[in-house]
Amino acid sequence: MDSNISSKCSKLVVAAIDIGTAYSGYAFSFQSTWNKVMTPFWQVRQSITNKTPTCLLLRKDYSVVLFGYEAEDEYSYIKEDNKHEDYYFFQGFKVILHEESVNRHMLCQAHDGRSLEASVVFMHCIRYLKSHFYAKLQTACIDIKDDDIQYVLTVPATWGDKAKVFMREAAIEAGIKNEHLIIALEPEAASIYCQYLHIAKEDTSSAVLGVVKPGTKFMVVDLGTPLSSSDTAHITVHQKSADSNSEKILMASWGPWGGKSVNDMFMTFLTELVGERVIKDFKEECMEGYLDMTRYFEAKKRKANSYRDGSTSIPIPMPFIHLCEKLHNVIDFREVIDKNELHRNNVKYTAGKLKWENKYFRGFFKKTIDSIVKHIDELFEEDVGRDVDIIVMVGGLSECHLVQDAIKKNFEQKTVIVPEEAGLAVVKGAVYLGHLSDDIPRTTLS
Ligand SMILES: Nc1ncnc2c1ncn2[C@@H]1O[C@H](COP(=O)(O)OP(=O)(O)OP(=O)(O)O)[C@@H](O)[C@H]1O
Ligand SMILES: [Mg+2]
Prior knowledge:
Elements (H helix, E strand, L loop, with lengths): L12 E7 L3 E8 L11 E3 L2 E3 L2 E2 L1 E5 L5 E3 L1 H12 L6 E5 L15 E3 L5 E3 H22 L9 E7 L5 H13 L7 E5 H15 L16 E6 L10 E8 L6 E8 L5 H15 L1 H10 L1 H15 L9 E5 L2 H11 L4 H7 L8 E3 L2 E5 H4 L1 H19 L8 E5 L6 H10 L4 E3 L7 H12 L6 E3 L1
Parallel strand pairs: 1-11, 11-12, 13-19, 15-21, 19-20
Antiparallel strand pairs: 1-2, 2-5, 3-4, 6-7, 6-8, 9-10, 13-14, 14-15, 16-18, 17-18
Helix pairs in contact: 2-3, 4-13, 5-6, 5-11, 6-7, 6-8
The structure holds adenosine-5'-triphosphate and magnesium ion.
């Protein structure tokens, strides 16, 4: 394949939608400049990210439909105003599609325990992302009709055919025409991204996989956001056929060791520090503050590295401090720390922030990293992993230097490749696929 390859897509634009367990997004590029894949920026307080949380806020009469940070923020306000009875708020619902019995009538449970048909929930997510994309085109004064757009929707490799049909139907309900839609496997899109990145972008700064030779086996480790032990497949072993005409996924494996488990360690720490009651009441009474705290942690988590000395601190909302003082019956929050035998030497409270030595803060990642390493190690022991020499890391947590360093150190004898924007590999790879699918082998499950 030469480096001047052009799009084979007959449509003017390819847009890919990736609904993740914790974060979702879309990406798109034009036929004439297919390699310049763009993603929107999602604003969260003072920062921006290129994906937005997978959560949906629906007013019961469907007059309000919000997704991502906007949905989280709005839900925190309406909860504080006690108006949440009129709304459904959904989070972490992607996992339900792993069930064998996926069907149109299965239910997603909202935050307050009420349920709604999953097909309606997914339809609104897709419709929201589609409209956001369309609005973005219009803001840029680009006059494109829906018939000029090729959509690609990604699904995990472990999903059965029923779940793929379910997603296709949800997309059609959301207004995407069946003939304008390609369903791609997430590891397939990630693999295409890593193999064609150097063709799409000649100035890549990170290592690239490049189009693999016939017969080559490689492992795609997608470190996203599993929420439970029954969650998504994240490690897949791929092999290009001898004639390079096809690529097969030989094995798909999963486990509860994604980015969410790092956040869980942080919440466990806080719970051990102040007690379950404070966390529960704070979440109930001041959801906005709770959200702020988790977002502060998220921002610091994304900056963690293996080498920097010093400390990491996270602002703690004043309502949290006051609640804690009230429930512990103390006048100064620092007393809560001083009385805590488990953590009094691990954390300090100064200038409205909790502060950890970086060495301790890195501990929040340890269990997750150890589990990832152990699992990859076990896969190399299995027949399917024995002659795999290349590990490709994608997904949000693969952008974390702590995780990258651990994989490189533990698998020194392998070639470890982390493409640039590893967290966007699936959604950007899905855009490549939309442009190149006539030219490149589609990946199938063996
Ligand atoms: N730079 C970063 N450093 C550390 N962690 C990161 C970084 N960027 C994203 N993450 C983490 O990666 C996780 C999200 O990854 P990703 O967006 O790939 O998941 P997802 O697509 O929602 O999940 P899945 O593919 O499992 O459905 C989150 O836990 C997030 O905190
Ligand atoms: Mg993902």
